[in-house]
Design brief:
With 506 residues, the chain is α/β, with parallel strands linked by helices. The protein has a domain of 222 residues. It is 39% helix and 14% strand. The strands form 3 sheets. A 9-stranded mixed beta sheet has the order 3-4-5-7-6-8-9-12-13, sandwiched between helices. Strands 1-2 form a two-stranded antiparallel ribbon. α4 runs parallel beside α15 and α14 packs antiparallel against α15. It is globular.
Length: 506
């Protein structure tokens, strides 16, 4: 026990001594902040954790704490046979709401809580955790990207300006931005395990959540039974730097899939050339499309530029259904028919008012500026890729749209500086199931293979025709994951996956 702080001492897998809150420090709240089916047995509350487990710096003493919002859904079985499943969501900057909403589905319930408790927590800086780093200064820029004719650099400049205003507000509020990072989130996870009295956990990460899971395998292996990595972000890669080549790879994969399918190729000849023809045409002269705003229902005019055109498809790579329709949508635009694209764009604009938290952009930059080792050279590398692959140089409307401007934010943000060891490939023998979508632009399938190369007991399964987030592929994905958690030492049954293929909508 440290006499000065009152916290017991603990050491993680790297041998770093750190102070930890006394256990248990989990306080229940009477009502869930997220809508959850009333039929389920749910406990919700706050876990109090140290703000920073590293040495104090600047004006932030070591005894400061944060509150992490936690939801525990009890197993349908009074005597569950499995260790709890902990879900680690993506973003960075997302929240628990999406997966908890999925519990309305009986098939999801069967997977998650038939034989185990299910736990999800809002990462520090997000959701209902305190403090949360929301950014109303930039949120309106999303619809503005479609309603006003800004070029990429102009919009990026406005975004950077808004984020720096948000940064000033966070600093004035006394928030330690350097304490919002992946290693601290991983330590929060381990603290939660101990506070709730669990010996081991099964981790299920999606997108950024896989990065958290990999870091947990590295730092706290003693507390982990098995891991599912869905749409993997290897610790040793930079998402910003690789965004352009990843996008180019995925679009070329789409074009090749059509070319090698005789029936599809007969309908969608020279799809690649047609796609870039539309892109160049719209960049030279945008098209104004009358529409109705999905929230206000006011009459609006959407500015369809080449940048927006590509952006619609970038977002579309999240959905298997959207991927199957992409060749048709490209040809429709080529013929001057933008109706279906407009409908898609409206759906992407649809962010109805809600009492639930949205994405935390502040947390996004705290984490990514640290994880991606962002410096001035990061922007230079992105610009180099943009010049090499001008057809993908805009990469609009995605998480990485502002990649070449990230160094402008990072220079003033005050994110934690990650150590070299945090960017080394994770080596582990913990059983791991790696799931990848064939057409995943954000976390391409080869990233899953890269991460698996140093995981001795890993299994890799790729879903043909799927995009980002394999979990979105329904009962097959659920059954594969359930079989793995039931028996991590066995090769998972992927029979249903073999029935998947990229089906082109003709």
């Amino acid at each position: 026990m440290d006499a000065t702080s009152g916290f017991p001492k603990s050491a993680n897998a790297r041998g770093i001594e750190m102070e930890m809150i006394k256990f248990p420090q989990f306080e229940l709240v009477p009502v869930s902040k997220y809508p959850i089916p009333e039929s389920l047995d749910v406990e919700c509350g706050y876990l109090t954790v140290p703000e920073s487990r590293s040495a104090p710096s600047g004006n932030f003493p070591s005894n400061r704490t944060l509150r992490i919002y936690v939801t525990i859904v009890k197993s349908l079985n009074e005597n569950p046979s499995l260790d709890p499943i902990v879900f680690l969501y993506g973003g960075p900057g997302g929240n628990s709401g999406g997966i908890l909403n999925g519990l309305k589905d009986p098939e999801v319930q069967d997977f998650l809580i038939s034989q185990s408790d299910f736990i999800v927590f809002d990462h520090r800086g997000t959701g209902f955790s305190e403090p949360a780093l929301f950014t109303p200064e930039v949120d309106p820029l999303w619809p503005d990207a479609f309603l006003k004719d800004f070029d990429a650099d102009e919009r990026a400049g406005r975004f950077v300006e808004g984020m720096l205003k948000a940064h000033a507000r966070f600093v004035n509020a006394g928030i330690n931005l350097a304490a919002i990072n992946t290693p601290e989130i991983v330590a929060d996870l381990n603290d939660l395990r101990m506070a709730l009295g669990y010996e081991r956990l099964n981790l299920w990460g999606v997108s950024y959540g896989t990065r958290v899971a990999l870091a947990a395998m590295r730092d706290y292996p003693e507390g982990i039974r098995s891991v599912i990595l869905d749409s993997t972000v290897p610790i040793q890669v930079s998402q910003y730097v690789e965004a352009i080549p990843n996008a180019l790879y995925t679009f070329n994969l789409l074009f090749d899939a059509v070319t090698t399918d005789p029936k599809a190729n007969a309908v969608y000849q020279d799809l690649k050339a047609v796609f870039y023809d539309v892109f160049e045409r719209l960049n030279k002269k945008s098209v104004l499309i009358p529409a109705k705003h999905p929230v206000t229902e006011q009459a609006i005019k959407l500015h369809l530029t080449g940048e927006v055109f590509i952006g619609i498809f970038c977002i579309g790579f999240y959905s298997s259904d959207a991927i199957s329709k992409m060749p048709s949508r490209i040809y429709q635009a080529y013929r001057g028919d933008y109706q279906k694209l407009t409908e898609t764009l409206i759906r992407q604009l649809d962010h109805p008012a809600s009492n639930l938290p949205g994405r935390s952009q502040g947390m996004y930059y705290c984490v990514n500026c640290c994880d991606d080792k962002v410096t001035a050279k990061t922007g230079e590398k992105i610009i180099k890729y943009a010049r090499k692959y001008p057809e993908m140089s805009s990469l609009p409307l995605t998480e990485f749209a502002l990649g070449k401007h990230i160094s402008d934010i990072a220079a003033k943000w005050g994110a934690r500086v990650a150590g070299p060891a945090e960017h080394e490939a994770v080596i582990s023998d913990i059983p791991a199931l790696i799931l990848a979508g064939e057409f995943d632009q954000n976390t391409p399938s080869y990233w899953g293979k890269l991460a698996g190369g140093t995981l001795a007991n890993s299994h890799y399964i790729e879903f043909p025709g799927a995009g980002h987030g394999v979990i979105n592929n329904g009962i097959c994905a659920l059954s594969v994951m359930k079989a793995f958690f039931d028996s991590p030492a066995s090769s998972p049954d992927d029979t249903c996956v073999k029935a998947f293929k990229y089906t082109i909508n003709l």
